[in-house]
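User: For this week's homework, look closely at the record that follows, marking any run of repeated tokens, and judge whether sequence predicts the tokens.
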Amino acid sequence: MFASAPITPLIGTMKPDAAKAFYGDMLGLKLISEDAFAMVFEAQNTRIRVTRVPAVTPAAYAVLAFSVDDIGKAVEALTAKAVSFARFPFLVQDPRGVWKAPDGSQVAWFHDPDMNLLSIVQYA
């Protein structure tokens, strides 16, 4: 029924100005609409709705992943924009914060201004 329907990830924010700068300027997503309730950004063929909410309870896992062709370049570009990568004591991560999955995929995690956990993934 929904196999061909576009999916829009929803992310909450209590800091709309910081979120707008983060998703637009830091991550380079195109802002396509904004109103008193939410901002909608576009990346490739996906829209991300960043909704203004009274409280954000960050999940303990990543809520959004960006697929990249070269995780090293992506980490370098985000680091140059002062994005810090999360470290997890239960994973072996390289000095950049990148973890290599058993299938060879590579993942690095970072937070948005509301502490929502996001990731970049280079699939094997």
About this structure: The domain at 61-124 is CATH 3.10.180.10 (2,3-Dihydroxybiphenyl 1,2-Dioxygenase; domain 1). The chain has a mean pLDDT of 95.
